[in-house]
Amino acid sequence: MKIIAIGRNYAEHIQELNNERPSSPVVFLKPDTALLKNNQPFYHPDFSENIHHEVELVLKVCKEGKYIQKEFAHRYFDQIGIGIDFTARDLQQQCKEKGMPWEIAKAFNGSAPVGKFLPLDEFENLKNINFHLQVNGKVRQKGNTNMMLFDFETILAYVSRFFTLKKGDLIFTGTPAGVAKVNLGDRLEAFVENRKLLDFEIK
Ligand code: ZN
Questions:
Q1: Residue % of the chain over a pLDDT of 90
Q2: What's this model's pTM, rounded to 2 decimal places?
Q3: What angle do CA 178, 37, 95 make, to 5 degrees?
């Protein structure tokens, strides 16, 4: 399986990092070794002093497809979950300054913790899903899909032009404002509506 991720999909997060608003989705990949499941702890690596949490809704792909048209995109995912797109902000900054690719800052081991998934039919309206992240019991990031620049269907159609989607692939859909450094001992809990789907520690 592969993990496809979208950057700069929430206006307030674009502002907090002083990035430009994109005219098409910003896409990057993480390998399967980035996946962290079952609330396993995240072991903080020593190559970064500034790893940020980015809480994001995650789509699970349910069938193979490429060049998917937007109006059929909803048929290609059947579950929604929540995950963290861990980002080594110091390395990312260096990569950006040099115009280099982001992989070492975004795709390292354990950089994609993912919680439980919910079937699509548990959501009344995909354009109005609330989600949030608590760090040590305090709300740090809050989002709603109505704040996305590119909605689920647009993202899925766009990425499928470049990458054949396969059953089991995951698509991270971007983070709202409030990203910040994680520290040893932090507890991260992520919620979709009021359901906690992810709960793990930084070690
Ligand atoms: Zn992200």
A1: 94
A2: 0.96
A3: 50
